[in-house]
Amino acid sequence: MLNQEDRLDYLIRYLLEEKPNGQELAQSELNSMDEKFELFRGLCNVREAKLVSDEFIETQDAFLTEWNHDRKITRLDDLQPVQSQIYLWKGDITTLAVDAIVNAANSRLLGCTQANHDCIDNIIHTRAGVQLRLACDEIMTEQGRMEAAGKAKITDAYNLPSSYVIHTVGPFIDQRGISPIKEQLLASCYSSCLKLADEQGLGTIAFSCIATGEFNFPKKRAAEIAIQTVKEYLSKYKSKLNVIFNVFSEEDQLIYENLLVNE
Amino acid sequence: MKKRANFLFIEKQDDVYTVSMTPELQDDIGTVGFVEFVDEDNVKKDDPILNLEASKTVLEAYSPLTGKIVERNDKAVSEPALLNSAKTEENWLIKLSDVDEAEFNQLEDA
């Protein structure tokens, strides 16, 4: 049986051989697992949505399964609600074993294409595997146009501990700041994801802080909109969904705690 | 009479209601580069009426009223930047008929 390093070596070789100038890159000496992993991740990030061999998928899945589960996996049972049906949890969204996690996507919906970029879209796609981009590409090809802000699409989560990924595109905030339209688009992101989760009969959905990263939506206002939209949705539709607000930074945790716990 | 809803203007003339871009929406989305209208003629309030790809965002616009689409601004499909114009005769999106006048009257005045 291959160990993780053997698998990585195979995956890197496959990805390099796909590239026109791959052989040159292959010459560079990589020693540590970290270096190899960085190269593997970057190659996956820039890889176009195109067919991949069964052997690659098999090896990648074996590698990612071990890599993804070699961390503490969190389930809904591990958490305490802060309000009825509402949970707040700080950590890496790719360690959540829940029905669906929500990805902050961009309007191409194919995942971050910048090698090793430190964004949630990148790490979700990396840890899910190259199948996720292929699944998104299929949805986009069928749709025939870019994904509008405020909507939601669902795919399998492949190698992630969650069952599904729901992809939503937040509003992009430029130097002129937020506007009523952008606030409404952010609210639509949350309501569209919840609606889709209910349509699919899911029990638990975990939201990342949509639009507050690369898209610059002010964090506090975004949290207010997120919480208000979720509460209104749950009560209006009598939804039984459990909703996890997943924060990654200390700053976001404090913002959500103030709004959810200390209100 | 002119009203507003869903970040769009609605102007009534006889029994035809013309839906057009508001300056706020134009400012928010930037230069429009792609326009695609829905094929469906009968729309309910808040149903999608078109998709816009603009420099700052990709957006689906929603009908401010229930009614029947009797005309689409097809010129904007070949020349999307028309939707950035300040003139209604250029930046209009669709014309609706079979609209409940009471529903229109309830909308916010523009």
* Strand numbers in spatial order across the main sheet of chain B: 5-8-9-3-2-1-10
Q: Give the ordered list of helices and strands of chain A.
A: HHHHEEHHEEHEHEH
Looking at the overall shape, the CATH architecture of chain B is Beta Barrel
Spatial strand arrangement across the major sheet of chain A = 1-6-5-2-4-3
Measured by DSSP, the beta-strand proportion of chain A falls in 5-15%
Mean pLDDT over the full residue set of chain B? 96
**Total of domains of chain B:** 1
Looking at the structure, the CATH topology of the largest domain in chain A is: Leucine Aminopeptidase, subunit E, domain 1
Profile the largest sheet of chain A.
6 strands, mixed
What oligomeric state best describes the polypeptide chains here? heterodimer
Gyration radius over CA of chain B: 13 Å
The CATH superfamily label of the largest domain in chain A reads Leucine Aminopeptidase, subunit E, domain 1
CATH superfamily of chain B: RNA polymerase II/Efflux pump adaptor protein, barrel-sandwich hybrid domain
Task: Please tell me how large the radius of gyration of chain A is.
Answer: 19 Å
Intertermini distance of chain A: 54 Å
Of all chain pairs, the largest interface belongs to: A-B, 19 and 14 residues
Shape summary of chain A: globular
Please identify the top-level CATH class of the largest domain in chain A.
Answer: Alpha Beta
Using the 3D structure, state the CATH architecture of the largest domain in chain A.
Answer: 3-Layer(aba) Sandwich
From the spread of the alpha carbons, the general shape of chain B counts as globular
| CATH class type of chain B | Mainly Beta
